[in-house]
Amino acid sequence: MKKKISISFIVLMFSLLTIVGGASAQTVSYKPSLVHKNGAMAYEHMKYIAYEIGPRVAGSANERKAEQYIQGQFERIGMESTVQDFSYSRRGSTTKSSNVIAYKPGKSSKQIIVGAHYDSVSVGRGVDDNASGVGVLLEVAEVLKNIPTPYSIVFIAFGAEETGLRGSNFYAANMTQADIKNTIGMINMDSLAVGDKMYVYGGAGEAGFIRDQALEIVKKKKLNVGTNPGLNPEYPAGTTGDWSDHAPFIGLGIPYGYLESTNWEIGELDGYDQTVKHGGVWHTGNDTIEFIESEYPGRIQEHLSSFSTLLTELLKFMNKTSTSK
Ligand SMILES: [Zn+2]
Q: Does the model's pTM come out above 0.85?
């Protein structure tokens, strides 16, 4: 009898947790102490999204689970968040997706957008592309929660990137002129884990102030992060192509920064072949923790830690050398 009661009690508690928290925190093996070890919480988020949930194709039930997880994490962190639903049609069928948006007020109401897409393709687990970026986004949001930052920060987990930058396009298209004027930059994170080298990119000239500031921090913190060497004239040194969620913001005249791991010195010199040993890992069955850790032991941890440190410092000290606005 005693046993029976306790089981019903557990079931009841579980139902309550499920009702209150949705797909959120109860199965995440996070410890608050991990937050202070750069990259450690990012790793837990990455693993949860890629394994407890799995591949997250735009419009799928798994993409919704990831959306709920991210919103649940913003709630746990204590940040207000909203879900921005959108839909798009392709070849006669309509797909529904959403962006998860959280706001952190800063000393100035001028804002920086920090984004990473949470959807994936159907093969592999979408670990590198892009549970890694979402992991760093959530970790940095938690680290900065109670730290004053010069600018307000809009954290956005974008849906449906892989089907044509749908979430970031929708968000950008719905910004008012006042929003656009109020936004000093957009920092995108996409595929941080597996590439041979860690990079930060930005626009050409003054529009590259986020990259330039990031490279100052890299020097000070002795991080192993560089920028596109510019071996390919189509992608000048320091910049990158318009293939991820930063692109719609460039279209609005908002300067971008972009964190990524790949290798610009191999293949077609277009940043597409991420590794010397295995070429591109994104969008393949190799985009799993098992593969990356057996082929590149310690790489995921090093990358998440470096990018987390870099983004945190960048958001804390963005105004120190900014020449824009
Ligand atoms: Zn991606």
A: yes
Range in 1-15, 26-40, 262-276 the model is least confident about: 1-15
Going along the chain from its start, the domains and CATH numbers come out as: 28-316 (3.40.630.10)
Query: Strand pairing partners for 254?
Result: none
Cis peptide before 130 (omega within 30 of 0): yes
Q: Please say whether the beta carbons of 42 and 107 come within 8 A.
A: no
Give the Å distance between the CA of 162 and the centre of ligand 1. 7
Distance CA 199, CA 220 (A): 16
Structure tokens at 194: 């597996």
171 CA → ligand 1 middle, Å: 17
Residue 203 C-alpha to ligand 1 middle, in angstroms?
A: 19
**134 vs 324, which has greater pLDDT?**
134
pLDDT tens by residue, 34-56: 888 999 999 999 999 999 999 99
Collapsing DSSP to helix, strand or coil, 240 comes out as coil
15 C-alpha vs ligand 1 centroid, how far in Å?
34
| Token code pair at residue 25 | 């925190």
